[in-house]
Amino acid sequence: MKKALITIQFVIALSLSIVNAASAVTLPAIFSDHMVLQQNAEVIIWGSAKAGEEVTVTGSWDNKSVTTKANNLAKWSVKLNTPPAGGPYTVTVKGYNTIVINDVLTGEVWLASGQSNMEWSAAAGIENAEQEIPKANYPAIRFFSVVHQTADGPQLDVKGEWVVSTPETMKHFSAVAYFFGRELHQELGVPVGLINSSWGGTPGEVWVSPETIAKDPVLKEAAATQEEVQWGPVQPGKAYHAMIAPLIPYRIAGALWYQGESNTNAPEAYATLLPALIHNWRSEWGYEFPFYFVQIAPYKDYGPQAGAILRDAQRRSLKVPNTGMVVVSDIGNNDDIHPRNKIDVGKRLANLTLHKTYGKTERPASGPLYREMKVEGRKVRLFFDYADQGLVSKGKELTNFQIAGEDRQFVDAKAKIEGNTVVVQAKSVKNPTAVRFEWRNAVEPSLFNKAGLPASSFRTDNWPITQEQAEAKK
């Protein structure tokens, strides 16, 4: 009888253990040791548990607990108010079991995404890698790399974990994101969390919800031109579902984007695609976070004028509020789609961010951006933003300007700087109506502002580009 009782007790205990294990509270991978939470914010922490299970979350910065219950879908979430930058703290999540997240910092959290130029690491080969890798010991800079995955619908989790910046972790992380984060950390004096969700060779459509693509005829047609490749997905939403959706609603300060090379097959559509992506992400996160992107560098092997058209499409995407663009035409490589100077790309993104988001207006935000034109007889005067202190030419004269009359035939033009404007003319064009600048795939920039940043390529017209014109100007 005694043995039978012991056996029954053992079975009951084992059954309870199995039930508790099956219903134990769990967290997505984005919540792990060494994570950074956005400072001075209401952050959301979420996970799974047994339906009806009571879950309590406590941040050690104030030891205030928030309690909720898992819903009928076995999901739960709570909101915590984070303190100013600091740490390390712990976050304790208690249900039937207890999870303690250690070495948590509060600071600035930025999401970096795109294709290979964002994904590119020091280990892959960058300028000054031998000098930079050993210096990457920054305990207050943390990395989270999202592992490549695809899905047909929004996923609940990603593969990855937070790690501290060291020479070993830095060399395998996004170089652009690292140099961006280091600049923010050094200037602001706060912890920085960097989430890299990038995939080399992917077109922009894979990073947008398929519903967004399907409802827009321009995007739907452009997406249909993408051909299958061996190195990654091309179908709308495949990376968004698996590598972006699971991160939502982790609180971020903003997003960085370096992508576009794989959209040169339908470059004009990028002026619709990039704003659609921004709106899609902001809508899902539920707030209008800053979105800063890198204009693709000139490269000789894009299709006829495709690089110039896509760069201009990126420039026109600046119409979306709270965005900014970094121009890298002077630090690119016309012979290599993967320029190795990632340090200055990261620093320019940081300067733009420090200026626009953190109020460090002494930092140069941008190179000259075309604003408007004025016809003055046989000349055209061009006006620019980010040129208040004047313009400069790196070289004996300005190059890469073209001008056209009503016949829409562009010819090379003479250009000269007058204060913070540029005056353009050509002897053969008596009644000018339009100007284009750097309207070729491969260019050597000559127009800069006093901060030493290059002007973006642009066109003042919106005329259709015929295949004959494109081939002639390739």
TrEMBL record:
Signal peptide start-end: 1-24
Where does the source fall among the domains of life? Answer: Bacteria
* Coiled coil, from the record: none
Q: Membrane-spanning regions, if any?
A: none
Sorted alphabetically, the keyword list is: Hydrolase, Signal
* A biological process from GO: carbohydrate metabolic process
Spell out the InterPro entries in the cross-references. Answer: Ig-like_fold, SASA, SGNH_hydro_sf, SIAE
Q: Which GO terms describe its molecular function?
A: sialate O-acetylesterase activity
- The residue ranges of the Sialate O-acetylesterase domain are 107-352
Q: Pfam families recorded for this chain?
A: SASA
Protein name according to UniProt: Sialate O-acetylesterase
